[in-house]
Write a structure and sequence with these properties.
This protein has 218 residues and is an alpha/beta fold. The chain folds into 2 domains: 146 residues, HAD superfamily/HAD-like (Rossmann fold, 3-Layer(aba) Sandwich), CATH 3.40.50; 64 residues. It has 9 helices and 6 strands.
Length: 218
């Protein structure tokens, strides 16, 4: 029996990932032919170190890593100044509350970033626990973020559903023993996902009750 749902944040609740991709392209004055989404997507859902190493290479010595981080942050925040959650997210959270399910969040981003946008979206109050990079030594694909949420809830991992948009996040949730539903976005839809339990294009595609029925029938 499903007792909890656990959401990723970036790319799943809010499509911060495409906004970041666009910011890199604008900063470097390049397009998708120079920074293919299918290659870029492999760096999503985990620590940002490797991603910034990629962007530094693409800059061809024109900017330092520090300059890229600073300028990209400004562009990224500007693109997200009027944030809108992905389709169906709020409906899933409302449905989970109505069913009495526990609701957690497991994100590789820092807590300040996550709470800022959850407040902007008026979604923070739905969550019983937030686990971010501030709470762990290793982020996804390491499973600790998910394990911490499950431990807090005091349930079996098989009694929870993780909603993820990235391959790294999916690996983390699977390794922690959760059921995983992938909801890819424009950046991650080209990735190869393994061992997930269900896939939907958006949370508008199926209601939460339908997803729970699918998982519990497996």
């Amino acid at each position: 029996m499903i007792k909890a749902i656990v959401f990723d944040f970036d790319g799943l609740i809010l499509d911060t990932e495409y906004a970041l991709y666009e910011s890199f392209c604008e900063l470097l004055e390049i397009d998708s032919s120079n920074l293919p989404i299918k290659d870029y997507a492999h760096y999503i859902g985990t620590d940002s170190e490797a991603l910034y190493e990629l962007i530094v290479k693409k800059a061809n010595g024109k900017m330092s890593k520090e300059e890229i981080i600073e300028k990209t942050h400004v562009l990224h925040k500007e693109k997200l100044k009027s944030p809108i959650s992905r389709e169906g997210v709020k409906e899933y959270l409302k449905a989970a509350k109505e069913k009495g399910l526990k609701i957690g969040l497991a994100s590789s981003s820092n807590r300040e970033w996550v709470t800022h946008f959850l407040n902007e979206l008026n979604l923070l109050h739905y969550f019983d626990i937030l686990q971010t990079r501030d709470d762990v030594e290793k982020v996804k694909p390491d499973p600790t973020l998910y394990k911490n949420v499950i431990e807090h809830f005091g349930i079996n991992p098989s009694e929870a559903i993780a909603f993820e948009d990235s391959a790294n996040g999916t690996k983390a949730a699977i390794a922690a023993g959760l059921n995983v539903v992938i909801v890819p976005n424009k950046i991650t839809e080209t990735l190869h996902f393994e061992k997930y339990h269900a896939r939907i294009s958006s949370m508008r595609e199926k209601e939460l009750n339908e997803i729970i029925d699918i998982i519990e029938a497996k």
